[in-house]
Amino acid sequence: MVRESIPPIRIDRIELRRISLPLVTPFRTSFGTETARDILLVRVEADGVEGWGECVAGNEPLYSSEYVEACQHVTAHHLIPRLLGHDHGLVDADRVAEVLEPIKDHRMSKGALEAAVLDAQLRQHGLSMADRFGAVQNRVPSGVSVGIMDSIDQLVSAVGRYLDDGYVRIKLKIEPGWDLEPVAEIRRTFGDSVPLQVDANTAYTRHDGPHLARLDEFSLLLIEQPLPEDDVTGHALIARQVETPVCLDESITSAAAAVDAIERGACSIVNIKAGRVGGYLEAIRVHDVCAERGVPVWCGGMLETGIGRAMNLALAALPNFTLTGDVSASERFWARDIVDEPVRLQDGHVHVPTRPGSGVEVDRKFLDSVTTSTVEVGR
Asked: For 70-177, where are the E strands, in sequence order?
């Protein structure tokens, strides 16, 4: 898909803002349990407009090697100086990745900075992210990710509530010792008609193929990331042992990585998270290479605020996002979001923002109340 470029902007200053938000309920995966998020936001001021980006790194380096404190450091001391030093601060979001490429890895940090530039650039020209990305839907179906619980009864109650709320797909986090029994109980309680998938978050080994194959009887949509992210060959081995489609998440760090995994038979479905691949523009390239190879994709979530959640919606509205993603309502995670129009669930779907840029405005008063620190860098 060809996407037209737009004129660059000249950056005046960039602000790094840390905020602290408690989660409505603890969220447990095989990596650990989160009860609150320490979140790094990036604000770009340029030519009289501002743009926001959200870094999706966690409090600790568990999901990936990136974590909030390190992201702030590398952004302030390495990424921003390089970006502002390029062409006297005249920046095009399409070139941010190229300018920052000499800095190795740090994809979540780079993605947040690119998103803020893109948001400002689009706002200046009155374009929405959905239009810039090439969205073909004005709303997308919404699934929900359900963490590991203390008991099966607690899990059943939680899934029941989400289904009553209208979510159209359930994803269960699993790990060794919490897989067959909880999945079986959800199927027994709610039936085979509920779209159901599982996410292992790298918790298994190559030797667990026969065990994971026992999940085949539950008619799951997919098994997500059973092995560590660097074991693409292992995923190919697992994919030959199970009938349930294997989906990769942590292993997909770029469009090139997606092509490699697909061609090696390691997955037949791809989860796209913009922060994990270095930004929304690379996420679009992942979408495109998967579409070219007939591999469906879906949009994953990283406990984003309304800023990242709105941008995820623009991404999830692209044509090859044919599987229900994790762009759930803001209230799933936050008692109060930091934007003026939190994402809301309606008839199992969430609407794609259409206003310029991300389509949402920050709630300044509330944002200030949850801010823990700010750092400003100018040209």
From this structure: 90-91, 139-141, 143-146, 169-173
| Closest listed residue to residue 304, CA positions, set 59, 56, 65, 71 | 56
CATH number of the domain at 131-351, out of 3.40.50.12780, 3.20.20.120, 3.30.420.10, 3.40.190.10? 3.20.20.120
CB-based contact 224:199 (threshold 8 Å): yes
268's CB contacts (< 8 A; 6+ apart) are: 239, 245, 246, 247, 262, 295
Q: Is the pLDDT of residue 20 over 90?
A: yes
Q: Can you point out the beta strands (E) in the chain?
A: 9-29, 32-46, 49-55, 90-91, 139-141, 143-146, 169-173, 196-199, 223-224, 246-248, 269-272, 297-299, 349-351, 371-378
The residues, any chain, with a CB within 8 Å of residue 273's CB and separated by 6 or more, are 56, 249, 283, 299, 300, 301, 302
- Which CATH superfamily groups domain 9-126+362-378? Enolase-like, N-terminal domain (3.30.390.10)
Provide the 10 A C-beta neighbour count for residue 131. Answer: 15
Report helix, strand or coil for 221: coil
How many angstroms separate the Cα of 368 from the Cα of each of 13, 21, 54, 121, 210? 19, 12, 16, 24, 52
Higher per-residue confidence, 377 vs 226: 226
Q: pLDDT tens digits for 76-119? A: 999 999 999 988 779 999 999 999 999 999 999 999 999 999 99
pLDDT digits (tens, 9 = 90+) for 318-366: 999 999 999 999 998 999 999 999 999 999 999 999 999 999 999 999 9
* Integer CA distances (angstroms), 344 to 239, 309, 329, 348, in order: 36, 11, 5, 10
Active site positions, annotated: 173, 273
Find the angle CA(354)-CA(299)-CA(205) to the nearest 5 degrees.
Answer: 170
